UniProtKB/TrEMBL annotation:
Keyword tags: Hydrolase, Thiamine biosynthesis
CDD domains, alphabetized: TenA_C_ScTHI20-like
Name of a matching Pfam family: TENA_THI-4
Organism of origin: Bartonella apihabitans
One annotated Gene Ontology cellular component of this protein: cytosol
Annotated SUPFAM superfamilies: Heme oxygenase-like
The EC number(s) this enzyme carries: 3.5.99.2
Name of the protein: Aminopyrimidine aminohydrolase
Reactions accelerated catalytically: 4-amino-5-aminomethyl-2-methylpyrimidine + H2O = 4-amino-5-hydroxymethyl-2-methylpyrimidine + NH4(+); thiamine + H2O = 5-(2-hydroxyethyl)-4-methylthiazole + 4-amino-5-hydroxymethyl-2-methylpyrimidine + H(+)
Superkingdom assignment: Bacteria
InterPro entries with a match to the protein in the record: Haem_Oase-like_multi-hlx, Thiaminase-2/PQQC, Thiaminase_II, Thiamine_Salvage_TenA
Length: 226
């Protein structure tokens, strides 16, 4: 399976332009502790619960992306993303059960401020902007988790033996997951190529950087679980 190229196209430009913001996200202490197997269990459980709530709103964003699309190919692609999340939810629920967390607990949990801020930002961008704006708000999550996951899977420093988080890390090497990320990246870069002016790039950068900061705050929320 061909891996996504995180350095090409407009995404690569946005990622590079984000500089330290992007590195703070993809190399966060939460991620590094996952790789080392040293993350406190309460932190991971908080993350799993909030990630469930996050995915509910992320699915709404993909439905909105379909509504923002004007041709059947783009609509199908948005619905594929929505279906992927719908298919992921039972897996997320089953995995959470291995940590002693039921779906009822997750669905009934109070949303953290960080979850509200991030998901509502994405939806607000989608409602007020166009399809490219919404994809820009979504892509730090779509591409960022893939970049993190693939890096951890391939890193000689990642501990797999005896690491309670090893299965979570390994999920990011599945062919279906990697293919979905690559499809989204390619579509994003193709759409973004239609607008090359500096003013529009600054507009997209503002969305991208805000979403990236909110991703970092999401990790922080898990790390500071009480």
């Amino acid at each position: 399976m061909e891996k996504p190229d995180f350095e090409k196209g407009t995404f690569g430009h946005l990622r590079k332009n984000a500089g330290g913001l992007w590195q703070a996200y993809v190399e966060h202490s939460f991620v590094n502790q996952l790789a080392a197997g040293t993350l406190e269990e309460k932190c991971f459980k908080k993350f799993l619960t909030q990630d469930y709530l996050f995915l509910v709103h992320f699915s709404r964003a993909y439905a909105l992306l379909a509504a923002k699309s004007t041709n059947i190919e783009d609509i199908r692609e948005a619905l594929d993303g929505l279906n992927d999340i719908a298919a992921e939810m039972p897996l997320h629920v089953a995995y959470a059960k291995t940590w002693g967390i039921s779906e009822q607990e997750m669905s009934g949990a109070e949303e953290a401020i960080e979850t509200i801020a991030y998901t509502r930002f994405v939806l607000d961008v989608g409602y007020s902007g166009d399809r490219l704006d919404l994809m820009t708000a979504l892509i730090p999550c779509v591409a960022g988790y893939a970049e993190i996951g693939l890096r951890l899977v391939e890193s000689p420093d990642t501990v797999f033996e005896g690491n309670p988080y090893s299965q979570w890390i390994k999920n990011y090497q599945s062919d279906d997951y990697v293919k979905g990320v690559k499809t989204f990246l390619d579509s994003f870069n193709k759409l973004a190529e239609q607008s090359h002016d500096e003013v529009h790039f600054k507009h997209l950068s503002k969305i991208f950087n805000t979403a990236t900061r909110l991703e970092t705050e999401f990790w922080k929320m898990g790390l500071e679980a009480r």
